[in-house]
Structure formats: structure tokens, C-alpha cells
Design a protein that fits this description.
The chain is α+β, with helices and mostly antiparallel strands. Helix content is 48%, strand content 14%.
Length: 481
């Protein structure tokens, strides 16, 4: 293995130890260690990996062709949907960044890491945060995408988030200075909130959540607060029977059926979804077993009616992603989203998952990182061998609409994202050690901010290479109207 990869050999070797073993050993050794002692341990890590070592980005000489990596990530996807994925990535450098988590994972493996590991999101760009309903029907702000979650170095999530801020700032045509300032403010927010969590009791960290009222309070202006309140009220007023059901379902006689809208929504063939004729009995039975016993009682009130493929997002397009319609009565529907879970993009660099089913990997990671999860969150495996996880579709989900943001709004939102990321990392990692490593000055913030700017430049170069490959017809893309 080449010299530039040597640090990652040690990292991968370390990651192959089962997380449960690491956790038990850690607790045995540290049960009497104070937060101050663990902060000191974190500070000592700077001797091996100075904070300034995170500064900037320089592509390694053996860096693979970014277009080849994008094409490689299409393996196993539905061929008819892959050009749609490419078309969505083609829209802008920001869209390309959202769809190229595998590319950045390969690059992050060449960057310095201080040592502590957390349950990482694996794709922590700013569009993978948002608001949604808890089982108690409160609305909270948190990470909302865990397709790539895996135990990994804490820096990787933070660097992906910080770089996404610069890419988004350029998408909004902010000045380079403003984009960099927003990114540095994001890192500072993470550092300050990790320090807060480091001084909290374990249950206080576990119970902490970012309620929508706290989010609205952070908005940069009265106008922004009013807009946020209006979106929240509009979302709360929507329900599945009156809003989603009429939009997604049509009746063939007395039989409800999800509306086809090809190529984005369509009913799969028996080859695409084995088990179709049997009503997916085996897959649903396995999914049911993954639910808590009390949730099974609720789930059993519903019967399966229909399932259709539904292309969503950017990075997920082409993977098996479907929506299932279930009814407890004619006026009592739920929609469950069934998403394929492939191996995490971090796996080649951080080690294999402990879980044999990647749907379970996603569910366990989500439950560990989120402050509240959907009661119907579970996993299964199809007859075609695809691992999947299941959750409710659009449960009061509120996503960011970045197009009309200014600098203040970008900075405010991404600081909230950093807060959510810090809380998620504090649940699984050693917040005191991470805080001790980062320190109380802005030195670490500036280092990651410089990395973010230079990696945004790399993303721009990769996007241009992708556009060129489309023009040269090396890559087929379908741009939706």
C-alpha cells in the first residue's frame, strides 16, 4: 500500500473491532475518569495530529477519476433510473456534491484524524438535515438521512458539512468571503455545542433535542421567523388521509392503487420486485419482526394494498426506493417508504458494518444518532437479496429551501445543522475528548474552514469533469423538465 494510505491502514485495523467490544472496554477503563481528565486526553492528541494538520486540501497523486467513481457507485442500481440520477447531479455543483458521497468518502480517507470515533452520518451535507415529527407529534430539527451511517472518525462528518456550506454559498452566489465565514461559523457551532455536551450528564445528552421553537428562535430576522412559523403551521395542518392520499392514490373500482407517474413513480415488474404476486409476504413478515412488540400490534391493524417505485433525492436515485400503501380502513391509510440500503460509502475506509443486513445498519445508526425516530422504522431483506429499511413517508417533514437564502440565513441554518451533528456525535462518542482536542480557540475552526474552501474548489473541478463526460457521451444523463 502506498505511503499516503498508511494512516488509514491503522484506522481500518482499529475499526474491525466490534463496536460492542469497544464500548465495553471503554466503559470499564473510563468509568471513574472525569470529563476534565478526558478533555486532557483529547488535548494530548494534538501532539500526534496538530489541529493545523486539518488545514486545506490537496488531492493525492493517485486520486481516482471522479467520473469513474460516480459510475462505479451506480452498480446495482436500476439501469433506467441511473440517467435521471446523472441529470439531477448535472444541475449544479451543489447538486453534484449531494450525489457524490462516495467520492468524498474516498478523499476523506486521505485526511488526518485525531483518533476518537463516533456513529457517523456518512453524508452530513446541509440538505440532509431538517424538521420532522416525533412519535409524540412534536416537531424537532435533526439529521434526517442515514443511508451511509457507520462508526467512523468524527472529523469526516464535520468536514463534509463544512464543505457543503461553501458549495451552497457559491450556489447562492454569495462572495467567497461570506461562504468561508459561514463555514467557519458552522465549525464553531459544532465546537461550542460539543463543549456543552461534554459537561452534561449522560442522560441529559441522550434526552436533549432541538425543538422547532428553538429553531425558530434562532432565525436571523422577524420576517424569517414568521416564514418559518407559517411553514410549521402548514405542515401541522396536513394529514395523510386528506393531503397525501388523494395526491398519491387512485381507485380502480373499489381497489386503491398508487398513481403511476413514470419514470419517477411506477409499479415494478416481478423481476424488479420479487414477491409481487405474493404481496411481499416474506419481506413484510421480516420487517414486522424488526419492530418493537407494541408497534407490531399497531402495524397489524393495517393491511397491505399496493407498492410502487418512487425515485427520490439525488444520491438515492436508481436504488430500490418504493412507497407502500397500507389501510386500516377506507379512511385510515399510512404510506411506508421502503429504501434499499447498500454498503456505506465509508466502509472501504472505516471498516465493515457489524450488521449483516445494511437495512439494520441504517436503523441502528439512526436510532443512535437521532433524538427521536419514527415508530415504524424497521428493516427487511427482499427475495432479490436487497437489504431495505422502512419508515413512514413524509411524517410532517420540513426540508430546507435554500434558493432564496442570504448570508445570514445560510449561517443561521448551518449553525443549527452543526448543533444537531454535535448532539448526534455526543450520543455515541466521547464529547469531552473531542472537545479537548478542538480546544476553546478558533484555531480548529479556521483549519476546517480552509479545508472547506479548498474542497469546494475540488468539487467544482469534479463537477466540470462530470459535465464534460456527459457532453462527450461517456455518461448518459436525462434532465427533467
Amino acid at each position: 500500500m502506498e505511503e499516503s494510505r498508511k494512516p488509514n491502514v491503522r484506522l481500518v485495523t482499529r475499526s474491525r473491532r466490534k463496536p460492542t467490544e469497544v464500548s465495553l472496554r471503554s466503559h470499564a477503563e473510563d468509568q471513574y475518569r472525569t470529563a476534565s481528565e478526558r478533555r486532557a486526553d483529547g488535548k494530548a492528541l494534538r501532539e500526534k495530529v496538530p489541529r493545523e494538520a486539518h488545514t486545506g486540501w490537496k488531492a493525492p497523486k493517485d486520486r481516482r477519476d471522479p467520473v469513474e467513481l460516480v459510475l462505479e457507485s451506480n452498480k446495482g442500481r436500476m439501469p433506467d433510473l441511473v440517467p435521471i440520477r446523472h441529470g439531477r447531479m448535472l444541475q449544479s455543483p451543489f447538486a453534484f456534491y449531494r450525489g457524490s458521497a462516495a467520492l468524498m468518502a474516498a478523499d476523506l480517507a486521505h485526511t488526518p484524524v485525531s483518533g476518537p470515533r463516533v456513529q457517523a452520518c456518512g453524508d452530513a451535507h446541509l440538505m440532509n438535515f431538517g424538521a420532522f415529527a416525533t412519535p409524540e407529534r412534536n416537531i424537532i430539527f435533526d439529521i434526517n438521512d442515514f443511508d451511509e451511517t457507520l462508526p467512523a472518525p468524527w472529523e469526516w462528518d464535520l468536514k463534509r458539512l463544512a464543505a457543503s456550506v461553501v458549495v451552497a454559498g457559491r450556489h447562492l452566489r454569495l462572495s467567497d468571503n461570506e461562504s468561508a465565514r459561514a463555514s467557519i461559523a458552522t465549525v464553531r457551532s459544532y465546537r461550542e455545542h460539543i463543549a456543552d455536551y461534554a459537561s452534561m450528564r449522560a442522560l441529559e445528552v441522550w434526552y436533549d433535542r432541538i425543538d422547532i421553537e428553538r429553531v425558530i428562535k434562532e432565525m436571523p430576522s422577524e420576517e424569517a421567523r414568521e416564514r418559518a412559523e407559517q411553514r410549521v403551521e402548514k405542515t401541522r395542518s396536513r394529514n395523510v388521509p386528506e393531503h397525501d392520499y388523494p395526491k398519491l392514490v387512485e381507485h380502480h373500482g373499489s381497489t386503491p392503487r398508487i398513481k403511476d407517474n413514470p419514470p419517477l413513480i411506477f409499479h415494478p415488474t416481478a423481476k424488479q420486485a420479487p414477491g409481487l404476486k405474493a404481496g411481499y409476504h416474506e419481506g413484510l413478515a421480516a420487517y414486522r419482526e424488526s419492530l418493537a412488540e407494541h408497534v407490531r400490534v399497531l402495524f397489524d391493524r393495517f393491511h397491505f394494498c399496493d407498492l410502487a417505485i418512487k425515485a427520490v433525492g439525488v444520491g438515492s436515485v436508481g436504488t430500490f426506493c418504493a412507497v407502500g400503501l397500507f389501510l386500516a380502513a377506507d379512511d385510515d391509510p399510512i404510506f411506508l417508504q421502503v429504501k434499499e440500503a447498500k454498503a456505506s460509502v465509508l466502509e472501504p475506509y472505516a471498516g465493515k458494518s457489524l450488521h449483516q443486513n445494511h437495512g439494520q445498519r441504517v436503523v441502528v445508526g439512526q436510532r443512535l444518532m437521532q433524538s427521536a425516530t419514527d415508530i415504524f422504522l424497521g428493516w427487511s431483506r427482499g427475495l432479490n437479496g436487497r437489504d431495505v429499511y422502512v419508515r413512514q413517508l413524509r411524517d410532517m417533514k420540513i426540508s430546507a429551501i435554500v434558493e432564496d437564502w442570504d448570508f445570514d440565513m445560510l449561517r443561521t441554518y448551518t449553525r443549527l445543522c452543526a448543533w444537531a451533528l454535535a448532539r448526534a456525535h455526543a450520543r455515541s462518542g466521547d464529547a469531552a475528548m473531542i472537545s479537548g482536542y478542538m480546544g476553546s480557540s478558533g484555531r480548529f475552526d479556521d483549519a476546517i474552514g480552509e479545508f472547506a474552501v479548498e474542497y469546494a474548489d475540488q468539487n467544482q473541478r469534479d463537477y466540470r469533469a462530470f459535465v464534460r463526460a456527459v457532453r462527450e457521451e461517456r455518461v448518459k444523463a436525462i434532465v427533467e423538465s
